[in-house]
Fold this protein.
Amino acid sequence: MAWHRHALSLVVALTWSVAAVAAPVELLSHRAAYRLSLANPPAAGGFLSVRGALVMEWRSSCEGWLSAQQLGFVAQTSEGSDVTFDVRFSSWESLDNTQLRFNIRSFDGSGASEEFRGQAVLDAPGGPGLVRYAVPAGTTIRLPSGTVFPTEHLRRLIDSARDGQRFVAHEVFDGSGPEALTRVAAVIGAPRQGDGAIRRWPVHLAYYVLDDTDATPQFELTFQLAEDGVLHDVLLDYGDFALRADLERVERLAEPQCQ
């Protein structure tokens, strides 16, 4: 299933130099739990219903940012059988946005699994780079200048929203397989006040294969982006079906005590 490669692109998704703004983007170290359900009406030959969960954890450390995500669901099909899917992602991203270590594993109901593990290194912030996969062994990908990693991308989205920009695009690498380098186009709406007087912006992301003439995105993601980095009202659109992720719980995590 090609759609699963983007099942955890939420960090979303779904982070850079902040000298151009009045105050740095301060991301909240947190663990967020979401309930998954089918967002669109059942289609002929498609899923009739979905039940599952998404858990996203993001925390800062003295050397970088740590992220862990898990998405799992059981879908009932029109043939009467169930489809199960589970994907787990963890990563570490350096503070200067030049290094990303990643580990992704996915499982389906047939017992088949897929794994991607490795490290991406940029020559300098904003410069070109290289990805070396440990799994599958020997696989390499060259990254163009301007590539950003997931946390950097999230921070840039927040900064663009704060600056009033409505259309931005970035080349983002997240490690999720052979098509892990994508061009992500973002449409950002007007802000509104969320809980605790924290601003939120409606954001729509469309993921495209680089150097592909097809104007159809591989994957689309819509959410309310809070200024502290927490995602609300998430919609994951895989083309054949879409999942709604309703936020049920946010747990604040301790910040590191760095010297």
Notes: The CA atoms of residues 16 and 209 lie 23 Å apart.
